[in-house]
From TrEMBL:
Gene3D superfamilies: 3.30.70.100. This is HMA domain-containing protein. Residues 53-116 form the HMA domain. Belongs to the ATX1 family. Keywords: Chaperone, Copper, Copper transport, Ion transport, Metal-binding, Transport. Pfam families: HMA (PF00403). GO terms for molecular function: copper chaperone activity; metal ion binding. It comes from the Eukaryota. One of its GO terms (cellular component) is cytosol. One of its GO terms (biological process) is copper ion transport. InterPro entries: Copper_transport_ATOX1-like, HMA_dom, HMA_dom_sf.
Length: 122
């Protein structure tokens, strides 16, 4: 960024667009073309690629770090789960991925923890 002008009121900001990089990004697991330059990826494409199909939130009875650890272990091994968050103080488990609600619910119940409620966020 270059700043020009004589006083604070005269300041003009001119942004210099950087040259595109000479390297390419390999995207083998997406439906977009295999090789894309960094600057050809738009925000819409990135959000469509990165956004999971479903998001669920569960209220799970967890009283200690062992309880949250058990839920973390089963969710980290479950195929189709892209990301999850186990919050012990609020006893909430948020799961995102390409997996049906019933499968996630069964996976959490497999730990022996009581699932009080669950909702589909999207």
């Amino acid at each position: 960024m270059r700043i020009t002008g004589k006083s604070r009121n005269d300041v003009v900001h001119s942004f210099i667009k950087p040259d595109p990089p000479s390297f390419l990004i390999r995207c083998p697991t997406t439906t977009i073309p295999s090789y894309l330059s960094v600057y050809s990826l738009t925000r819409e494409v990135m959000s469509a690629v990165a956004k999971p199909a479903h998001s669920y939130e569960f209220d799970v009875k967890m009283t200690c770090s062992g309880c949250s650890g058990a839920v973390t272990r089963v969710l980290s091994k479950k195929e189709g789960v892209q990301s999850f968050k186990v919050d012990l103080p609020t006893q909430k488990v948020t799961v995102e991925g390409d997996i049906p609600y019933e499968d996630v619910l069964a996976t959490i119940k497999k730990t022996g923890k009581e699932v009080r409620s669950g909702v589909t966020v999207y």
